[in-house]
Fold this sequence. Notes:
- This protein starts with a helix and ends with a helix.
- Strands 1, 2, 3, 4 and 5 form a five-stranded antiparallel sheet that branches. Strands 7, 8, 9, 10 and 15 form a five-stranded mixed sheet that branches. Strands 17-16-26-25-24 form a five-stranded antiparallel sheet.
- The mean pLDDT is about 90.
- The protein is extended and about 120 Å long.
- The protein has four domains: about 30-145, Nuclear Transport Factor 2, Chain: A; about 150-165 and about 250-330, Alpha-Beta Complex (Penicillin-binding protein 2a (Domain 2)), CATH 3.90.1310; about 175-245, CATH 3.30.1390.30; about 335-375 and about 395-665, Beta-lactamase (3-Layer(aba) Sandwich).
- With about 675 residues, the protein is α+β, with helices and mostly antiparallel strands.
- About 35% of the residues lie in helices and about 25% in strands.
- Strand 24 (about 595-605) and strand 25 form a beta hairpin.
- Helix 14 packs parallel to helix 16 and helix 14 packs across helix 17.
- InterPro entries: Beta-lactam/transpept, Beta-lactam/transpept-like, MecA_N, NTF2-like_dom_sf, PBP_dimer, PBP_dimer_sf, PCN-bd_Tpept.
- Keywords: Membrane, Transmembrane, Transmembrane helix.
- This is Penicillin-binding transpeptidase domain-containing protein.
Amino acid sequence: MNKKIVMIISVLAVIILAIVGIYVFIQQKDQKAQEKAATQWTQNFEKKKYTELVKQVTTDSLKQQGYTKDDFVKKYTNVFGGIGVSKIQISNMKVSDQKLSYQAVFETAIGKTTSFSYSTKLIKQDGTYQIDWKTSLIFPNMKPTDRISFQTTTAIRGDLVDVNGFDLATNKKAFRAGIIPKELGNDSTRTKRIEKIAKFLDVSTESVEQKLAQGWVKDDLFVPIKIVADEDVQKMDGLQYAATTTRYYPLGAAAAHLIGYTGTVTAEDIKKNPALSSDAIIGKTGLERAYDKELRGTDGGSISLVNKDGKVKEVLLESKVKNGEKIRLTIDALMQKRAYEDLEKATGSTVIMEPQNGALMALVSKPSFDPNQMVRGLSQKTYDQYANDPERPFTNRFTQRYAPGSTMKAITAAIGFDAGTLKADRVRTIDGLQWQKDGSWGNYKITRVTENQKVDYKKALIYSDNIFFAQEGLELGEDRLRAGLKKFGFGQDFNLPFAMTPAQISTDKQFKSDILLADTAYGQGQLLMSPIQQAVAYSAFANDGKIVQPHIRVNEKSKTSEAVSKKAVDQVNAALLQVVKDPNGTAHNLASLKLPLAAKTGTAELKLEQGTEGIENSFVFAFNAEKKNYLIVSLVENHKKSGKTATQLIKDLVPEVEKSIETKK
């Protein structure tokens, strides 16, 4: 009897344990289902996937709030898009007894909110959990009839100024030219007035008609067409003006590639930065773009919850406006303007740098464009003229890379002195105007301009002897030449606020022939350097063998690194002075300035094959060998077309640079 009782009890215990186990399993599974639904909801909310969010909401809860699914998506899109929410952070998510709670912080167009607490029920339908939705899941105290009020105070864009405080980019009074439709008249009068207005504003009549045909337009409402400068305002039948401000660039085309310009935000811009409002003005190119965040500042304002009677229920966020910073550059506006003008009709670039500290004093690219036109709005015709110009006025030439030509010979000489392959008293015997290493070069020969049989390093630099430096390159060998060039900044990124590919020694890691090694030594081959990179490399000759990293903001400090020894630089500089002083020197044109100038010229020829005539780019770098307080690098593309070399064009610029630097003292 006792055994039967024990057995029955044992069986009952097993059954009870099984039931408990099944119950626990079901509860755990149910809890996981709730957590899964909660996680999906918060993740979709964080990612602003409102079309996915609405799929998790119960149909009954939507109806109770008086919403359709489309209403739901529009509400979330309008509310969070309207206040410029760029990021949603969810924290402290908890799921218990079919209830979900969490906290959320929003980064908006006017700043970050405090943490809001949310809670709702999880409703099980068809085996899955869904959200019992209410408008309080948008903002905790929000009711279906409430709306969001978003008021902003636009930050004033900061100025870009030169080293002396002169404006390079600033805000200026302007007028928004527009039309009040009823003042145009009818029929032929209307047509004639629109044509006249379009011509004056440099826009098409079609674009004017399109603006007048917008859905919101009424006969007595002002329809803006284009911003015009204060001095350009003209009275005209049918045309009205509304005061505004616009971005203004005092140097115009002279600094367009450097400073850039601003413009209205695009859909693509907002996609990258959702915090931007649809009418925001942002930097589009140049330093306006690079420093956009600092210049733009932060709009102030308030985000409030407003009831159906228009009364504020709750201020969700309030922030003060923070105007944009004033950014002071190392650029000298007068020097910049003069450098631009002194390029005359040439296509090219000029860079002026302080070789001791890396401050960039002028960065010029020519031909250029008027950034003030870009801000006010270009007609398609004017834009096409720029875009189709074969001289490519939109191209930034101080960051574009070129073969440096014979200016590179100064670097090869310095590397050779430190390596011991070049000596001050060494003389090479070279016959004729052409030379090749041996028969393995086939028909390829290196050509020089002037025939000198006995050539030392000074004469080689004065006459710019290609054969001398080709032989020097071969004697140095690839490893020593490459290692030396890297010390001069090749392959380095200078961390400047504009895009620039590092200077290149060759397209491959190794030269594929002795010809390429020889060509590289005198500045041809596959060498590529921008004018800025050339200024950095040549700074070694005005800085005791150290190159200096460039910078463009005042008070920044640039690092220096040793490229070659001071002894090597002193020897090279002795020859660079003669490049100017010697009547045979390629930069003798500068001797009449009566300044202690050291210089090296270069011509890089671009042609399809040897023996044919190609396009020649002209280069020069020059500095005051005694004061060493500035370095000029100038480039002229296809100098035969412009009729003047880079050396000829900087002749008038050098005294102005000297005077400007003396004035600063």
